[in-house]
């Protein structure tokens, strides 16, 4: 009896082992030594999925390219992707899982600012390099040892938006914002940079990410006679705002945030998108850049590869994931797979050309982008053009 | 302050028209089968997404909409056959949980098929909005309002004037007795899901030009439609439509006069109040339902 049971358990064990061997991914041919594992934690589903999906697709694209190139620094590379469902709680659980169970070297992710904030706290505690793809200024101001930020910060975008308003002689504007970390941060930025230019924010109207009509907020703002409408959100609400403003017959300029830097905004807003101006990285207007531009070759290559792999237009959000991952890859190539060394390397990275701009990191600045890394883009005939 | 009122009321109408057709779908299924179908919000999503996909393939709007509605009807029927029918006769709570599962499955498949980006549909009749007093009402909102009235009228005619309608009413009234006279409650459940899916798809196609269509729009729509249906007593389609406009108006007035962002919170608080006032609870009212 005992013999049989032992035999059976052995047979079962052997069976399991065989099954596991079949299920396990084929070991990469190229590279030697332990795999370089990087976590890519994005909001692939949920309200921020139009940002998180291209981020994940970028991670997959790089995985393919790096594997084909023989790995990183002679080691096989493995980008493990996770879906937060746009839930900060889930984002924290996933970064914990990535670090403690999957034993990753570094983390790229945190699609929305609330997710990134929560993940940054954990990254600090676990001492893991964390490349955030969210735009909230407070993520890296003040600077945090293990946290780096890929997108142009909200403050930078706000400064650029104010530049446009000043150039067109606008003195007052109303601010419509999604009531979360991203929108509130944008409000602070706009208020900060409007004051020295003698501009006034005459009204600030929050809305929820799930709202389907923003007319109520807009008529409240209209009562204050603003010279322009500034909207800080992502589609669909960002598009609904533009549509509702035009529907109400309001003709003043509409300025939006870098959160509308994808095709979805133009598709959803339709004719109301015409003439909307927003600050953005250069990816959307890569083909219109002058030949000598430092970023142009990289932007064109990324856009071409991304579109070939995914059958939809590359956008700046995927670009942020690209910057985070390639920055880590650059670090691994130079200092090897060591968390502390990678952190030190990234902190002193200068002149790194990414999709978001040319990064010049320092201990005080874990974002490294400047105002010159943003351009003002205007939507013309359903397409992006550089605003002169 | 008063100057805002006309526009806020019109905005309420617009938002209400978005919820109305979802609410009617809830009522149709609940009336005939006693099931609260929390996958109801997914039918507008699928209708709108299918329509957008057909438009992208250069099919004109009218045939694209017709095909999308027909396909969603078939999906509704399949839902009933594959998910609800096998559990026929289970506790209502079990069936509710099944509908939750169905809605998650739809959302997951939609994400895989259409991706996460929002899709747009063109307005049926583009043009300047209608000006009423000092407010404006978009043309698409007028379409949605008109369709919600038409659909309720059509349902009324169907249930009052046609034989299958009468059979459905009989089944809603007393499933056991109707079985004795040869009406199959299972077939009626199939009919209910098909009709509700079709109504949902019409709703999705008419509201997509206003809100855009995303794979995850169903959850929010379903919840708001449910609130509207409960406001109307859950068993009465015209009352559900009225409930939808009440919910829309409340959301718009709260946003306009109190604090933006609290519209949904107040709506759901209202749902709690309405539910606690219906002391018998939802399962009991099911026995007293009528079409």
Please, could you describe this protein's structure?
The complex is a heterodimer of chains A (388) and B (291). Chain A has 388 residues and is an alpha/beta fold. Chain A has two domains: 7-152 and 290-371, Response regulator (Rossmann fold); 156-280, Response regulator (Rossmann fold), CATH 3.40.50.2300. Chain A has twelve helices and 14 strands. Chain A is globular and about 65 Å long. Chain B has 291 residues and is mainly α. Chain B has a single domain (11-127, 137-289), classed as ABC transporter involved in vitamin B12 uptake, BtuC (Orthogonal Bundle), CATH 1.10.3470. Chain B has twelve helices and two strands; from the N terminus they run H-H-H-H-E-E-H-H-H-H-H-H-H-H. Chain B has helices at residues 5-33, 42-56, 61-84, 92-114, 139-161, 163-173, 175-180, 185-211, 217-231, 237-258, 263-277, 282-285, and strands at residues 130-132, 135-137. A two-stranded antiparallel sheet of chain B has the order 1-2. The interface between A and B is large, with 38 and 38 residues.
